[in-house]
Amino acid sequence: MQKTPMTASGLQRLEDELRHLKSSERPAVIRAIAEAREHGDLSENAEYHAARERQSFIEGRVLELEEIVSTAEVIDPSKFSGDQVKFGARVTLIDEETEKEVRYQIVGMYEADIKQGLLSISSPLAKSLIGKSLGDTVSVPAPGGDRSYEITAVFYA
Question: What pTM was estimated for this model as a whole?
Answer without folding.
Answer: 0.81
